[in-house]
Write a structure and sequence with these properties.
Structural class: alpha/beta
Helix content: 10-25%
Number of helices: 4
Radius of gyration: 16 Å
Order of helices and strands: HHEEEEHEEEHE
Shape: globular
Largest sheet: 4 strands, mixed
Distance between the termini: 27 Å
């Protein structure tokens, strides 16, 4: 089971039919029942990220997001809402969200280790953060990647 990241080819983002889901397990923009009462859904790719120097000042855009290139995250937000709508079909289900991008301002979507340590990179989606906070009773966890916290990466 996987979702594509921001360095994967665009073809991987193009999910086909349910047979492909069974054989390849690409859950980008899909949901899958894992067991009674447990569903996983996935959304790959990254959105625009931000950089702040010396812990103050404005958040400036950095890096090239893929495939969600809109600065206001509009397409990602739309895909996230549609994914949530197709995933929540049973009010009793608990949900695991697998995303490449993490929730904005979470400790797992923030990097302070690049370069000389005075630069902070804020990754993540505000819409994902809002979705998780609004639905915390249904969401078991958010498994995500994208942020590579490390020195001189």
């Amino acid at each position: 089971m996987f979702i594509p990241g921001n360095h994967d080819p665009i073809e991987i983002f193009e999910t086909k039919d349910s047979q492909e889901l069974i054989h390849r397990a690409n859950i980008h923009k899909r949901s899958l029942k894992l067991a009674d009462g447990l569903v996983i859904c996935g959304l790959g790719g990254s959105v625009q990220n931000f950089i702040q120097v010396d812990g103050k000042g404005p958040l400036n855009t950095c890096w090239n997001p893929f495939p969600y290139k809109e600065e206001n995250h509009s397409k990602f937000n739309e895909d996230l809402k549609q994914l949530w709508d197709i995933t929540v079909t049973d009010s009793e289900d608990q949900i695991v969200i697998m995303t490449h991008e993490g929730p904005f301002l979470s400790s797992t979507a923030k990097n302070e280790q690049f370069y000389n340590g005075n630069t902070t990179y804020f990754c993540g989606s505000p819409a994902l953060k809002d979705l998780m906070l609004a639905n915390h009773e249904k969401i078991v966890c958010n498994i995500h990647g994208h942020t590579h916290d490390g020195s001189n990466y």
